[in-house]
Amino acid sequence: MPIVALVGRPNVGKSTLFNRLIGEHRAVVHEQPGTTRDRLYGTAEWRDRGFTLIDTGGIGLDEGDGDLLADIRLQAEEAMRQADVIIWVVDASTGLTAADDEVAYKLRPSKKPVILIANKAENQRRQMDAMAEFAPLGFGEPIVISALHGEGTGDLLDAIVDWFPKAPPEEDTPPAVSIAMVGHPNVGKSSLVNTLVGSRRTIVRDEAGTTRDAIDTPIVRDGQNILLIDTAGIRRRGRIQPGVEKFSVLRAVRAIERADVAVLLVDATEGILAQDAHVAGYVDEAAKGLIVAVNKWDLVEKHPRAQQEYTQVLRRELKFADWAPVVYLSAKTGQRVDRVVSQALAIQAERTRRVPTPQLNNVIRNAVEAHPLNDRGRTLKIYYSAQVGTSPPRFACFCNDPRLVHFSYVRYLDNTLREHFGFDGTPIRIEFRGRNSEM
Fold first, then answer.
1. DSSP conformational letter for 397
2. Are the beta carbons of 347 and 291 closer than 8 angstroms?
3. Which residues contact 216 (CB under 8 A, 6 or more apart)?
């Protein structure tokens, strides 16, 4: 699809416009300048033409934290290099600034189409002033809009689509497998994404909390489309600060919900933390596939049983997700990072598996006979079992009284199904229904 990049100085409303055009609140929007840092991708459609939209951090005159602002500027410049059309957003409410002149200086050498947008033009006076003030910049007459209220966005979308070449015939492509990188702040999620992509896709710094949005990056491995989702670090609820961090965490949780498989990164030098178990709990609640990736393994002193002992600790602390495979890697050196993708694809295959009904009933029947469940003189009887869904695998057991079943017995049947059918890396859902219940 064609690629369209939103650029401009900080706090002109690029993220608000991004959310408006893709039709969902994906980018963090805050009055604090510099909220957006990495490139954020989304998909928009207009006049039956789809395109990829990129939100970028503010560029212009650099002040304050020079290193971080330089990284943000590089991310925006990379977006401009990728783009087929560039949308330059200015602020009609404040008028032309020195930072806008700096952006104009960067855009003039570009041979790509640049569409000038005057945002925050909520009244006729602002619209007239914007026309007079920004037209002399040499990028044509600005399109006046209000991203917050949606005014003028139709004219903008018309102008964007008019630059696209004639659409090629559509081809059937396999759906992408979504892999979300999750974990507490500063554990190496962005470094792992950059290593897998082979370029500096997201900003990586020692400062915790650099990533604020859920950053989507499509890649292809062995003909399979894959969507890598880098997320903001998730803290325990009581430690989440209001404002930008709160919205960043909400987007990380939403990223888990739209992923197929989550990769929980653990810092090998810190060991398993309470936050790690908290994040794993989010993944389990969302019924997503899970990989535990122990990052920075190159920094750990090795001995023959190092991995075995570390895995035992992980299993003890994450006992509710002992079905998740463990991968030891170093995002910095690239050691074993490809195993993350291959393992995620294997887990997705397990999540979509179906068990033949006769085999399922045979396994469940033998399990119940081997360990009958009795409660106050009553015995659980399972008459029939069926797989009722996938992603994750879901099973229904029709029995004489669902109230007889307690958690430990569900756990027993869960382990039995895994022993016979696999389902590595994915949660299983088992429900019990009365004999006369419908499928």
1. E
2. yes
3. 40, 41, 42, 227, 228, 229
Beta bridge partners of 185: none
What's the pLDDT at 203?
38
SS (H, E, C) 150-198: CECHHHHHHHHHHCCCCCCCCCCCCCCEEEEEECCCCCCHHHHHHHHHC
Strand spans (E) along 284-412: 289-295, 326-328, 374-375, 378-379, 382-389, 394-399
Residue 238: how many other CB atoms lie within 10 Å: 5
Kindly tell me the burial class for residue 81, based on how many C-beta atoms sit within 10 Å of its own C-beta (0-12, 13-18, 19 or more): exposed
Q: Are strands 374-375 and 382-389 parallel, antiparallel or unpaired?
A: unpaired
Between CA 140 and CA 419 the distance in angstroms is: 67
In one-letter notation, the amino acid at residue 114 is V
Could you tell me the two tokens for 143? 């399109």
Residue 144 to residue 46: CA distance in whole angstroms: 19
Give residue-wise pLDDT tens across range 366-419: 999 999 999 878 999 999 999 999 999 999 999 999 999 999 999 999 999 999
Q: What is the mean pLDDT of each run of 10 residues along the chain (439 residues)?
A: 86 88 67 51 85 80 52 69 88 88 85 90 85 87 89 91 75 75 83 79 40 68 86 56 47 80 92 83 92 94 91 93 95 91 95 94 96 89 94 94 92 96 95 75
Residue 156 has a pLDDT of 92
Amino acid residing at 407: F
- Amino acid letter at 2? P
Q: What is the pLDDT of residues 239-278, one digit of tens each?
A: 444 443 344 456 667 778 889 999 999 999 988 888 788 8
Q: In Å, how far from its chain's centre is CA 73?
A: 23
Closest CA to 8 of 112, 84, 114: 114
pLDDT, tens digit, 9 for 90 and up, residues 316-325: 999 999 999 9
In one-letter notation, the amino acid at residue 378 is: R
Is pTM beyond 0.70? Reply is no
